Amino acid sequence: HRAPVVTHMVWYRVGAADEPPGRSGMAHFLEHMMFKGTPTVPPGDFSRRVAALGGNDNAFTGQDYTAYFESIARDNLETVMAMEADRMRNLAPPEADFSSELQVVIEERRERTENDPRAYFTEQMRAALFPNHPYANPVVGWFHEVDALSWQNAQDFYNDWYAPNNAILVVSGDMTLDELKPLAKKTYGWIAPREVPERHWTAVPPLLSNPVLTLRDPSIRQPVWLRMIRVPSAVQNRDDARALEVLANIMDGGAATRLYKLLVVDQKIATGIGLSYDPDSRGDAVLTIQATPAPGVEIKALEQAIDETFQGLISGGVTDQELREAKDRMKDAAVYARDSLAGPAMVIGRALAVGETLDDVETWPDQIEAVTVDQVRDVATRFLNPDDNGKRPYVTGYLLPEGGKTQP
After folding, report:
1. How far apart (Å, rounded) are the C-alpha atoms in residues 20 and 33?
2. Which pLDDT band holds residue 405 (cuts at 50, 70, 90)?
């Protein structure tokens, strides 16, 4: 309540993973089309009106959700809520805008993926990690499938999924629930609920192989080693997810944590290394490790050193001090995240959109505090062991300079 501003978000519980086969990129394309007008808001006017009120707006699409948001003075909240409710029900872009916006999306795909070997390579690795599952498809869509989309395809997707009973309203900032509820009823209450499709995702089969991908590109100057590991999300297994979050922070929570200290500072075998894990997913989540070898170091030697680091973690576990420091860093970061305008809306909206509860969000610090040394070692043993990954395979990737001497 320090400033009279709010962030208003609408999260639809539908994303790229819900697209019909052969129509990848549909959710992201529809996100673009949502700015192309209704009978009362002409194409392009949505953002112009928000800007004229001194605010800003945007949207984004993920595998499990699509979200739209505006940060605005609280006195103008009802105005943007009414505009958002309008396009929830009355999207009607001119036919000519379909073709032009499709080209915008195609150019976005070309610029961000086709012309970026790192992005293209990551996309290929994810496809190998999720065979027979919608998560194998990129959010932006495969180029040839995006190029074949029609407005009827997008309209059908909109009619199927964009309904108030499939949406979550989150407002953070200078606002109370007593103030918000009447506005929500006034602006969104007139929209009738609609039946939305049931999800029938295909399952990722148990795999015993570990795919290895290699890409050489002339724009790559420094080799990059990547590994993606399929692990549980918080929806699938909350205890494993919290232990994995703590493990990720122990291994890569700053310059003094284990991976950086061992491989960059002590052994000087890498110039950079990172480990990341995001638990907010309706299906399997992904743990990603990325490293850059130091000059003169073969990428296979770096890979071996990383594997040995994980083997040492599994055999020796983590210390009480490492656990304590990781928990403190994570809880400190959570405090700072709450002390922002959009941060709480982002955290809560994403969690609810994938199937977590508000209680999961509010008790997250307590859940992190409850993680034990044994739990961290257990998830490391089950998911990071390079010699035994069970039925959740990892994909290893080598991104290399074209014609370079470094061999995978």
Report:
1. 18
2. low
Sort 407 into a burial class: Cβ within 10 Å, 0-12 / 13-18 / 19+.
exposed
User: Which ranges constitute the DSSP H helices of 252-298?
Assistant: 258-259
CA dihedral 319→322→326→327, nearest 10 degrees, is 50
For the segment 365-391, the average pLDDT, to the nearest whole number, is 91
Helix runs in 173-298, H state only: 177-188, 238-251, 258-259
Helices (H), 150-237: 151-161, 177-188
**CB 17, CB 65: distance < 8 Å:** no
Q: Express each pLDDT in 26-56 by its tens digit.
A: 999 999 999 999 999 999 999 999 999 999 9
Q: Which residues are catalytic?
A: 31
Confidence check: pLDDT of 161 > 80: yes
Q: How far apart are CA 398 and CA 215, in angstroms?
A: 6
Per residue in 243-279, pLDDT (tens digit) is: 999 999 999 978 888 999 999 999 999 999 999 999 9
The one-letter code for the residue type at 371 is V
- CB neighbours of 250 closer than 8 A, spacing ≥ 6? 257, 258, 318, 322, 323, 326, 376
Q: Provide CB contacts within 8 A for 64, sequence distance 6+.
A: 13, 15, 17, 281, 282, 283, 353, 354
Kindly report the pTM of this predicted structure. 0.94
CB 202 within 8 A of CB 133: yes
CB neighbour class for 374 (10 Å; exposed up to 12, middle 13-18, buried from 19): exposed
